[in-house]
Design brief:
- The protein has six helices and no strands.
- It is mainly alpha-helical and 131 residues long.
- It has a domain at 105-131.
- The protein starts with a helix and ends with a helix.
Amino acid sequence: MKIMLLLISMKKLKKIFKYVNHIKLKIRHILSKYPLLYAFIGSIGVVLIWRGVWTIADDMGMSGFSSLFWGVFISIVSGLFVSFFVGDSIIISGIKKEKRIDEKTEEEIKKEEITLKEIKKELKDIKEEID
């Protein structure tokens, strides 16, 4: 009997998740046309999440040092610490010894754009040969 109830509730959860995902896609599509509004609404969500985390940590009586330790530990273990605070593109460009996009001249950016277009054309030609 308990298994049946669990299966029924799992089916309901799947329907709810599917519906929420559908609504999320519609909202993202609409908001993508208004980037400032999108950023503002997103920032409100982030702030409210952090407010909730902060309040829970306070309710648990966590000290500042304890919060820092556990925050860094969780971020490192989950693999988000470096990518979030430094960024993947910065790490990759550092490994390749490339300039950051804000350090490049307009001419360098145009050369890269031409190179990318040529690569895209070559890939298209290769794909046509394969088909």
